[in-house]
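Entry 12.
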Amino acid sequence: NIEGTRNVLELMKELGIPKGVYTSTLAVFGDTKGQAVDESYRHDGPWLSEYDRTKWVAHYEVAEPMMKKGLPLVIVQPGVTYGPGDPSAMGITLREYLERKLRGVPKVSAYCWGHVEDTAAAHLLAMERGRAGESYIVAGEPKTLIDAIEMAERITGIPAPRMRPSPGFVRFLAAVTRSEMLRVSAGATYLGSNAKAKRELGLRHRPLEEGLRETLLAEMKTLGIPAPG
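Predicted 3D structure (tokens):
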């Protein structure tokens, strides 16, 4: 995340590329404690995962200083990105739910959900309309993980796990198992306002229920799970 970003941006500078878009993440803001923050917010640690920390370094110690020196770069900050075939932790969570292997859903944990196609479109909008030197939160609709899994139950008919462990219990498990995945789901909220991106870029995201329906039905087909009647 750090040296790769530096290498690409140095090459952009060397080749004199007139404009570029760098993919940061809402996670550079860490756990926002239930607040939907904007681009002016700053979090200087601690971080819940090594991914969050290294993306913070790439954003604030690599990309931003180069922009201040004149690199014509636009930064975009997606939230949780989901869609069919997603190999990320969220994709794994949704597949475990479909296979009835998901044992519980932590309380409080919340994210801004963006379908992969809408997140890709946001990058194109940033290239076309974004102002060089600016950052844009391009995250989607804010929903708790419980909201999303209960929505999935309505879509698929597959029962959502009834266990709702408290953030404290999940943090305890994360400490015992040294699991980053548990740490970032232990009541953490990664929330941001996309008002600037809507205003300046024309950002649009499909509703989570629509995107989740498409994603879950595609995954059910892949997994050989019968679609709801």
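Annotation: The chain has one domain: 3-213. The two ends are 44 Å apart (CA to CA).
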